[in-house]
Specification:
Blueprint: E1 5-18, E2 21-34, E3 38-42, H1 49-56, E4 64-69, E5 72-73, H2 79-89, E6 90-93, H3 105-115, H4 120-133, H5 149-161, E7 167-171, H6 179-194, E8 198-203, H7 206-209, E9 214-219, E10 222-228
Parallel strand pairs: 3-8, 3-9, 6-7, 7-8
Antiparallel strand pairs: 1-2, 1-4, 4-5, 9-10
The structure holds adenosine-5'-diphosphate and magnesium ion.
Adenosine-5'-diphosphate binds next to strand 2 and helix 1.
């Protein structure tokens, strides 16, 4: 990627209506991310992490402030343009893998490519390649309920990556996994980052945040730099 500073939020605020009042959820958030970084956003429950993730992922927009993603000013885009950015630039991973239960692992990974209009053979090739990449070449024809929690999450990671997004955005990706499986998923994130993926991971767990190369803290909607971790 030519533009190394590809992501910048300036004085971002988010308010949600709460009865007659407005609840101030994100407070003057400033955040810059460079291509190839592995950043974690660490904060307790209710601190505004998912609200921030939704804005980063263009699922929601800020009430005020500026957000630039790969040179594009996000506030100025229409719903259709936002949907295009989501599908082309962002790979989402959530706490629960959110796989479609009636589709095999391979078909689940193909889904984003179906929406993108990629022809069937090419879809299949790329889905299989991604499933191999996450260590599931022998599970491609399994259905989600035939896979362990960690395997399901790896399918979700393959699905998030198959469209070759600029940024992998994960909200509590190990929240539903046991410790050992969580560590395996974290090892995979580290590998993907070493291969050049930009990763932003949101978590309330210090031990999980420590896998990233840089940590920012969010408390009550206020974001502060936490510096580099030991892994950097
Ligand atoms: N759609 C919404 N409408 C009103 N309040 C919301 C909405 N989404 C989140 N909130 C509030 O914003 C605060 C932060 O929520 P969230 O970003 O989900 O925190 P976290 O992910 O850190 O647990 C919480 O107090 C929550 O109740
Ligand atoms: Mg959350």
């Amino acid at each position: 990627m030519s533009n190394s500073e590809f992501f910048r939020m300036t004085d971002v605020n988010k308010f949600y209506p709460m009865g007659e009042e407005q609840a101030h959820i994100l407070k003057n958030v400033n955040l810059k991310i460079e291509a190839g970084e592995y950043l974690s956003v660490l904060g307790p429950s209710g601190s505004g992490k998912s609200t921030l993730m939704n804005i980063i992922g263009c699922l929601d927009t800020a009430t005020s402030g500026k957000y630039i993603l790969e040179g594009q000013e996000i506030e100025e885009l229409t719903e259709v343009e936002l949907a295009q950015i989501r599908s082309s630039k962002i790979g989402f991973i959530f706490q629960n893998s959110q796989l479609l239960p009636r589709l095999t692992a391979q078909k689940n990974v193909e889904m984003p490519l179906i929406y993108a209009g990629v022809p069937p053979r090419e879809r299949k090739r790329r889905a299989c390649e991604m499933l191999e990449r996450v260590g599931l070449s022998d599970r491609m024809q399994h259905y989600p309920n035939q896979l362990s929690g960690g395997q399901q999450q790896r399918v979700a990671i393959a699905r998030a990556l198959v469209g070759n997004p600029s940024i992998l955005l994960a909200d509590e990706p190990t929240g539903a996994l046991d410790q050992k499986t969580g560590r395996q998923v974290m090892a995979l994130f580290q590998e993907l980052n070493r291969e050049g993926r930009t990763v932003v991971m949101i978590t309330h767990d210090m031990n999980i945040a420590a896998y990233a190369r840089r940590v920012v803290h969010i408390i009550d909607g206020v974001l502060t730099e936490g510096g580099e971790t030991k892994d950097a």
